């Protein structure tokens, strides 16, 4: 059980780092402080074994995340991406809805069925509700409130 929680937290952190890095790039073009190679479709961070590759997903509503996208959701302004980290390919879809976080959490709990496992994870001052299946660490739905909208990430690998 503890191992599963650690894996889920790691997935949320990898997703959060990629989400933050790419949104920062989108907001303010190339930064001198980041040692990264940027292109129109994504970027590479680091090199060798530490290299992380992030490739933007142009049509995130058409990707299979292993669960359905919450009805009425829109692709978030923060780009969805394929993230390669330590040889593992993650697919991270970022979406938003005007519905409450509780409704989105309940939707994904129902999607995962009786094996749903719900936990909270905090990154900075943002509290994520992380939903996955017991003993299976993918896909993952990570739901959080972002101003007036509920935002969420669907992560699979």
Descriptive account of the structure:
With 157 residues, the protein is α+β, with helices and mostly antiparallel strands. The protein has one domain. Helices cover 24% and strands 43% of the residues. It has helices at residues 2-27, 101-112, and strands at 36-39, 42-45, 52-57, 74-75, 80-85, 88-97, 116-123, 126-133, 136-146, 149-156. Strands 1, 2, 3, 4, 5, 6, 7, 8, 9 and 10 form a 10-stranded antiparallel β-sheet that branches. It starts with a helix and ends with a strand. The model is unreliable at 29-35 (pLDDT under 50).
Topology:
Elements: H1 2-27, E1 36-39, E2 42-45, E3 52-57, E4 74-75, E5 80-85, E6 88-97, H2 101-112, E7 116-123, E8 126-133, E9 136-146, E10 149-156
Antiparallel strand pairs: 1-2, 2-3, 3-5, 4-6, 5-6, 6-10, 7-8, 8-9, 9-10
Sum this structure up briefly.
This protein is α+β, with helices and mostly antiparallel strands and 157 residues long. It is 24% helix and 43% strand. It has one domain (2-156).
Total count of strands = 10
In percent, how much strand structure appears in the residues? 35-45%
Order of secondary-structure elements: HEEEEEEHEEEE
How widely separated are the two ends? 20 Å
Number of domains as seen in the coordinates: 1
Nearest-angstrom radius of gyration?
Answer: 15 Å
- The residue-averaged pLDDT reads 79
Helix content: 10-25%
Structural class: alpha+beta
Gross morphology is: globular
Low-confidence stretches: 29-35
Largest sheet: 10 strands, antiparallel
Number of helices: 2
